[in-house]
Amino acid sequence: MKTYKVTITEKLQKEVEVEASSRYEAERIVEKNWKNSDYILDAESFKGVKFRADFPQNDIGYGR
Q1: Confidence band (pLDDT; 50, 70, 90) for 55?
Q2: Per the structure, how many domains does the chain have?
Q3: pLDDT band for position 60 (50/70/90)?
Q4: Considering only CA atoms, which of 59, 63, 61 is closest in space to residue 3?
Q5: Nearest-angstrom CA–CA distance, 52 and 64
Q6: 45 belongs to a structural domain
Q7: Between 20 and 30 A from 41 (CA), which of 5, 9, 27, 62?
C-alpha cells in the first residue's frame, strides 16, 4: 500500500457592502475589518471543496 498526501481546499465566500470613494478603498476597508474579525466566514459561507492527491515521490513521471 502507498502513502498519498491529499490537499483539501475549502472555499468560503461572503459579500459585504461598504461605502467608499473608490474600489481600492472599499477593498482596504473590508480587508481591515476582516482582519479585525468584523466579518466571520463560517459554515453558512461555504461555497465548495476540492480534493487533490499527489503521486508518491517514487511514482512521479510514470502516470500511476
Answers
A1: confident
A2: 1
A3: low
A4: 59
A5: 14
A6: yes
A7: 5
- Domain-located, residue 14: yes
Note the pTM of the prediction, 2 decimals: 0.68
Residue 35 resides in a domain: yes
Nearest to 51 by CA among 4, 3, 18, 2: 4
Domain region containing 16: 6-55
Three-state DSSP at 61 gives coil
Q: What is the 3-state secondary structure of 9-55?
A: EEEECCCCCCCCCCHHHHHHHHHHHHHCCCCCCCHHHEEEEEEEECC
Does pLDDT of 64 surpass 70? no
Cell numbers for 30, please give them: 473590508
User: Residue 11: pLDDT above 60?
Assistant: yes
Answer yes or no: is 51 within a domain: yes
